[in-house]
Write a structure and sequence with these properties.
single chain, about 375 residues, alpha+beta, conserved putative lor/sdh protein from methanococcus maripaludis s2 fold, Elongation Factor Tu (Ef-tu), domain 3, 6-stranded antiparallel beta barrel, 22 strands
Length: about 375
């Protein structure tokens, strides 16, 4: 209450009490109720003057918030992908000649080397045809040599020499064909690998092109993973990845050997192929694999997931406290999430973060920051 208002109030109060005294002297006692009413009105006036200031100026308490200080750390974010082990090659061995199967040299389910015999086909007359073809070549070669000598002495015409040469080439072609068919009597594995399946049994007649066996090359295993468009730039040829097979704690290395330049039109992901050295054939095809590809170094804040909030537009971010103690919402990008921590970027190198109570603070409001490890326990 101002000084002039106080003097006016006192003067009014004095006159009021004087008038009240005169009233008591001139009116009957039964009319004292009216004087009581006047006194009550006077007290209400006092209340109005005395408490007016408090009603007009309420005290607003600055909210206290728990904060932490955070500084960026250099990390290698990991791109976690899933895949299955695949054989480097699966080759179908087919019959090159027709005939009956006479012997199973190696049963399926075995590791085989390149050119190892698998099956045998009946000879029929192929050995005899090979011998005949060889004799025919010997004859045609002698005829050609004789014609060449005669031609050198001009005893025969040029055409005779050319005919002898043509006969020799025909004989050689027949010999090559007979030799090839003879070699196909024994069906061999074209590569080193695993004898996965057999397509014929002893006594079966097979025609040219029939499937006889399946050989899987497991010396190198393939892993096909699909990387989204935001991460494909972080994948490089010859890059090393860590691979865990069937949730095993033991990790093996794989290398990136192929990166597709064309995205899948439906998923907008890119095929990336990795290879695993499996020369000892310890790993089969079809195992579930977890692939971890390290990305380029990033400077991030490592925080608890509980500091994340959503703003009115639905953006994920963090409430920070600036130098003037104003709470400011900052959108962040989550690079990696683990069981206990998240790795985010989009914040200054050093920042004060509201770790508790951020969801109750409006953007731009002034707060009283209290460090998390100095907050007093409730009484």
């Amino acid at each position: 209450m101002k000084h002039k208002e106080w003097i006016l109030f006192c003067h009014t109060l004095k006159i009021g009490f004087k008038n009240l005294q005169q009233t008591f002297e001139t009116i009957p006692r039964r009319s004292l109720v009216g004087g009581g009413a006047l006194l009550l009105v006077s007290l209400l006036v006092v209340n109005k003057f005395v408490f007016r200031h408090k009603e007009e100026s309420p005290i607003i308490k600055t909210p206290r918030v728990e904060v932490i200080h955070s500084t960026t750390q250099a990390i290698n974010p990991v791109l976690n992908l899933s895949a299955e082990t695949k054989a480097n090659a699966v080759i179908a061995v087919r019959a090159e000649i027709a005939g009956k199967i006479t012997e199973i040299v190696v049963d399926k389910g075995q590791d085989v080397s390149a050119q190892q015999p698998l099956l045998k086909i009946v000879d029929n007359d192929r050995v005899a045809r090979l011998s005949q073809a060889q004799s025919s070549v010997d004859q045609r070669l002698a005829e050609y040599n004789s014609a060449a000598k005669l031609k050198s002495k001009n005893f025969v015409a040029e055409n005779s020499l050319l005919q002898a040469k043509a006969n020799l080439e025909t004989a050689n072609a027949e010999l090559a064909r007979a030799q090839y068919e003879y070699e196909q009597l024994i069906v061999k594995s074209p590569i080193q690998g695993y004898y996965q399946d057999r397509g014929a049994e002893v006594g079966n007649y097979v025609a040219v092109g029939d499937k006889l066996a399946t050989i899987a090359d497991l010396s190198v295993l393939l892993l096909n993973v699909y990387v989204n468009e935001n991460d494909i730039s972080d994948v490089k040829l010859a890059q090393t990845a860590k691979v865990a097979i069937n949730h095993s704690h033991e990790q093996i290395e794989a290398k990136v050997t192929y990166i597709s330049k064309v995205a899948d039109p439906k998923t907008h992901t890119y095929l990336v192929e990795l290879t695993i050295d499996n020369k000892k054939l310890l790993l089969p095809e079809g195992l579930t694999a977890k692939v971890a590809l390290e990305k380029d170094i990033e400077h991030v804040h490592v925080l608890k997931p509980s500091v994340l909030i959503l703003d009115d537009q639905g953006l994920i971010g963090i409430m920070i406290v600036e130098q003037d103690n104003k709470a400011i919402f900052k959108p962040v990008e989550i690079l990696q999430a683990a069981a206990e921590n998240i790795y985010v970027k989009g914040l200054p190198e050093t920042v004060t973060i509201i770790s508790s109570g951020a969801e109750f603070i409006k953007n731009g409001h002034v707060v009283e920051p209290i460090l998390a490890n100095t907050v007093a326990a409730p009484a």
